[in-house]
Write a structure and sequence with these properties.
iron ion binding, membrane, transmembrane, Rossmann fold, Protein ECERIFERUM 1 isoform A, oxidoreductase activity, 6-stranded mixed sheet
């Protein structure tokens, strides 16, 4: 929002929310009817193509978003070495409004203007005319319009909304108040209307011109340099005809230079070119891929989870993961992404963060949660994890933490398999078990005298049971088999371990395998505290469910603008935090296999570095 919002700031369909797309329905239905039902002589292919073209524009923009976020996470050719936060994602969530706005006006023009409908697929004279009109009037008028928008009166009421994003993403290019978009549409309509009125319009000219605008807009707002230097060395005058990502980035950091649209010519003519333009272009291209200190290795969860990644849909990624019905409509894209991950078959970078002097990255293995339960996939999964660890070791990364199902007793002995295979590893492998135990222990309400432990017995479950018994808290097992296994794991006789069938405990520590039937046995008001990476399904409305082991990240952790799976904003899983703390403390040993750090030491170190425990959802 601008600092002093003026009239026509909000889009007129803002109250409609996601239902705004219904505004296109009558036009789409009518244009489809004219092609599918009417006689060949009455068909209007050009109007019918408007809707597919709008879909192409959305896909085109999304490709740039994904590419930009991937490249900025890697760090090579990065321009501004800063991150973005959730407020920018929220501000830029409605980037599709301008596509909807343009689509409505395209349909209106097609049905009302002579020469705007039933146009041919191609006319060379119209294409040449569009190029000349853009290079001349459009670029010239935009330059002066842009300078006018930087006058304090218009800037404070309109254009400051766009400049709220210092570090730009491709979709930043279209984040303007509604009034600005009206002006931009009129400006870019000059070539299109000229073609219509001179009867030289064609589908190729119209679609090609708008695609060119989208391409240059997206490229110019990427926070990594796209245009190679050799291009200007081969043809020096090109620097006046085509801007670069770094050229426009200076406009967002300096505000009073580099006003041009896509052609810097007018900045050179009127003396508003930033003197650092060439230098920044060269330095950005020399920026090498960033080597992090800590890597968190995760994986995909469901086929739809690809959209919730930071590389997917920006707004979905900024919210805790929940299943969305409309994603089912995207099954062709989902299927294509599954095939791509299967063919690509390599770990990819998802996110990059900064914490004090530490450089952090999140890598993902292209495997889904379901595959971790398939015996036939275990070798392939272990190979990918091992390759990621060895890659981290070659790059000089200090710590690699294993997230989600990338560590388990059946899969890889909680990561110990890789250490035993490669005893000379310099990268420290961390399964985060000690911090997870500490987080769960400190989530148990004070004064609790007994808990029920239910779920798959893992390294963490055994540690929880032993520590609680040592603290004088009775730990009950719901099944005799679990009780026997827990008892055998203790070195001495433990009187605080019990086997019960009554389920009277109001604090349950739960892991994988908790069923609906078991939850129904819990007393009203029971607090379920997970000790596993995946949250239990909630069957009880009269009980309380804590989130999976996690903590609130300090404010000094930068570039957090996506949620970690189902966790709320700026909440990190304990497994991910464990790797960060391991590096900050300079611990030199691995934490994997059946070994664990001292739980109290890990907890106090984590608190000292600014991570905060989450409130427990329970009535006092």
């Amino acid at each position: 929002m601008a600092s002093r919002p003026g009239i026509l700031t909000d889009w007129p369909w803002k109250p409609l929310g996601s239902f705004k797309y219904l505004l296109l329905a009558p036009w789409v239905v009518h244009s489809s009817y004219s092609v599918l039902v009417k006689d060949k002589s009455e068909r209007d292919i050009s109007t019918f193509l408007i809707f597919p073209f709008l879909l192409w524009r959305m896909l085109h923009n999304q490709i740039w978003i994904t590419l930009s976020r991937y490249r900025t996470a890697k760090g090579n050719a990065r321009i501004v070495d800063k991150g973005i936060e959730f407020d920018q994602v929220d501000r830029e969530r409605d980037w599709d409004d301008q596509i909807l706005f343009n689509g409505l006006l395209y349909y209106l023009a097609s049905y009302t203007l002579s020469g705007a409908s039933r146009i041919p697929l191609w006319r060379t004279d119209g294409v040449v005319m569009a190029i000349l009109l853009h290079a001349g009037p459009v670029e010239f008028l935009y330059y002066w319009l842009h300078r006018a928008l930087h006058h304090h009166f218009l800037y404070s009421r309109y254009h400051s909304h766009h400049h709220s994003s210092i570090v730009t993403e491709p979709i930043t290019s279209v984040i303007h108040p509604f009034a600005e978009h009206i002006l931009y549409f009129l400006l870019f309509a000059i070539p299109k209307l000229t073609l219509v009125f001179t009867k030289t319009a064609s589908v190729g000219a119209m679609l090609g011109y708008v695609t060119y605008i989208d391409f240059m807009n997206n490229m110019g707002h990427c926070n990594f340099e796209v245009v190679p230097k050799w291009l200007f060395d081969i043809f020096p005058p090109l620097k006046y005809l085509m801007y670069t990502s770094s050229f426009h980035s200076l406009h967002h950091t300096q505000f009073r230079t580099n006003y041009s649209l896509f052609m810097p010519l007018y900045d050179y003519i009127y003396g508003t070119t930033d003197k650092a333009s060439d230098k920044l272009h060269e330095s950005a291209l020399k920026q090498e891929e960033e080597i992090p200190n800590v890597v968190h290795l995760t994986h995909l969860t469901t086929p739809e989870s690809i959209y919730h990644l930071r590389l997917g849909f920006a707004y979905l990624a900024s919210k805790p993961y929940t299943s969305k019905w409309y994603l089912c409509l995207m099954w062709p894209v989902t299927t294509w992404s599954m095939i791509l991950t299967w063919v690509y078959g390599r770990t990819f970078i998802v996110e990059g963060n900064r914490f004090d002097k530490l450089k952090l990255q999140t890598w993902a293995i292209p495997k889904y949660s379901l595959q971790y339960f398939m015996q036939s996939q275990k070798v392939a999964i272990n190979t990918m994890i091992e390759e990621a660890i060895l890659d981290a070791d070659r790059k000089g990364i200090k710590v690699l933490s294993l997230g989600l199902r990338n560590q388990g007793e059946d899969l890889n002995i909680y990561g110990g398999l890789y250490v035993s295979r490669h005893p000379k590893l310099k990268v420290r492998v961390v399964d985060g078990s000690s911090l997870v135990v500490a987080v769960v222990l400190n989530s148990i309400p004070k004064g609790t005298t007994q808990v029920l432990l239910r779920g798959k017995l893992t390294k963490i479950a055994y540690a929880l049971a032993y520590t609680l018994c040592q603290q004088g808290v009775q730990v009950a097992a719901l099944y005799e088999d679990d009780y026997v296994r827990l008892k055998k794991s203790f070195n001495s006789s433990e009187t605080n371990l019990a086997f019960t069938k009554s389920s009277t405990q109001t604090t349950w520590l739960v892991g994988d395998g908790l069923t609906e039937e078991e939850q129904l046995k819990a007393p009203k008001g029971t607090l379920f505290i997970p000790y596993t990476q995946f949250p239990p399904r909630k069957y009880r409305k009269d009980c309380f469910y804590h989130c999976t082991p996690a903590m609130l990240a300090p404010c000094s952790v930068e570039n957090i603008h996506s949620c970690e799976d189902w966790l709320p904003r700026r909440i990190m899983s304990a497994w991910r935090i464990a790797g960060i703390v391991h590096s900050l403390e300079g611990w030199t040993e691995h934490e994997c296999g059946h070994t664990m750090h001292n739980i109290d030491n890990v907890w106090h170190s984590t608190l000292q570095h600014g991570f905060q425990p989450l409130p427990v959802p329970i009535n006092e």
